[in-house]
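Side project, low priority. Logging it here so it doesn't get lost.
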Amino acid sequence: MVSVALATRPLAAQRCGPEALRLEQLAVQPLPPHFGIDGALSLADGGYALWSAESALLFMYPDGLRERRVLPPLLHPVGLAADPDGYRFLDRATGVEYRLGADSVPERIGAVPLAPGEELDAARWRDGGWTIGLRDTRARRFLVRRVDGAGVTTLFASAAADSVLLIPRYHLSETGSALLLTRLTAPFEVLRLTAATGTVDTLAVPFGDAALRLALPDTVAQWRALPAVALDCGWVLTLSDLQSDRRLLLRYDAAGGLAKVTPLDAPFGVMAGRPAEGTLLAARRAGELELVWYQWRWVRQDQ
């Protein structure tokens, strides 16, 4: 069971187990009109930095929008990271790295190497370097690479697709010291990439679950997955129908088992979270797009 209620005070995250996950709404903040969310970065002071394909950055908090940055129109962030001098990001089209200081004039500080035919799709800053996801249109594969002072290391390569259009695409999200790779399209598999050991484990293949297949219509080709978002154990995954307001919220346990499928008839999606604090950030559309902060906790099934 997933229920939503208004929380009157912060709640500590409960030890997870076979209990149900309850989401309690903490705050709601509207987003500016026509802002399309391309990614979210959790900030140390409790807020989130959001970036869009329209070359804009928003710094959102439960009490509202604190800052908006407009970038030059030719720059489109694909990954964002905070550092002592401001923020750094990669440009999706070129792989050039920029630093954004107190003003909105980006300073070029480097680049990640892209070979001909490689298209940057995702990026996460971790341990002093970029981990990037890209499509290699020549080899028809999706690659994950680590780019840092030690050089370039390929951490993951998908099987070759039959055509460029069928190259799988993956979101990158974090779970402790590892990364979760969530495939955008069916079968929506979730992989765990441990960079320190170079191992890739398949945690889940949602479309392979019989109960989930029954919940998905024949139009599964029109469904997309959002990034898997880690809890204190397990994770949640949102599947969205591009042609309607239908959503499926999937909860997985620590062993990768599908614990619950919750259908939603509303444009809603869990985007990011803070496992140590027991909070999640979601986007929903109720007229205009808005952000919703949730506290989550484990409860007994009879509560």
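Brief comment: Residues 4-299 form a domain with the Neuraminidase fold (CATH 2.120.10.30).
Revisit when time allows.
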